[in-house]
Amino acid sequence: MGRRFPSYTHPTNMTLNHNIGVLALQGDFDKHIQSIRACGAATVLLRDPEALDAIDGLIIPGGESTTVGKLMDRFGLTAAIRRRAAGGLPIYGTCTGAIVLAKEIIGSDQPSIGAMDVAIERNAYGRQIDSFEVDVSIPAIGDEPFRAVFIRAPIIRTLGSSVETLSVCDGNVILARQGNLLVSTFHPELTDDLRVHRYFLDAICGNATVCVGR
Ligand code: GLN
Prior knowledge:
Bound molecules: glutamine
Strand order of the largest sheet: 2-1-3-4-12-11-10
Number of domains: 1
Shape: globular
Strand content: 25-35%
Number of helices: 5
Structural class: alpha/beta
Largest sheet: 7 strands, mixed
CATH class: Alpha Beta
Radius of gyration: 16 Å
CATH architecture: 3-Layer(aba) Sandwich
CATH superfamily: Class I glutamine amidotransferase (GATase) domain
């Protein structure tokens, strides 16, 4: 059983002054930008380590994790993001983002940030059902089901004791949090439902004590 965080209620009329970086090397970063802006926060396209200084939260989008890992290395971002993650920067990784944030990518030594205490297996739903949608329950964002879109999704196989499970689907953890880090194996940016992005902004970015640590 992972660590528990205080229960979360979405505050209405909350002013969001966040400046959220969206890693824009490859993948569906544009959809996250639209979701974050629809929540009322500002966005920054993150392509270089300097831009990390200007943000108080970071999203690592879906895409192709080996490509994203290589590009992060090439742009000098891997170590810089790892340092900021350790310093408390709120980071939300979706799908490929979850893979590059994981401490262990099962069966692979591809480049990654390795900040979150989970072991994750890529493309783990198999070919025949490698993309699907399903309504899931996420108690932390409310009672209404959330339409979760999975695209060649990974499965989180093990979670460390500091990782809190926020949603489970068919016995697999699909949304999890470790302090300032949030990962989902599905893509909330592909729906109009902003509740997961709002949770990241309000419950994680809103309560973060960030130490830049550079
Ligand atoms: N299969 C991709 C990978 O291994 C992840 C897919 C996604 O981000 N939707 O990186």
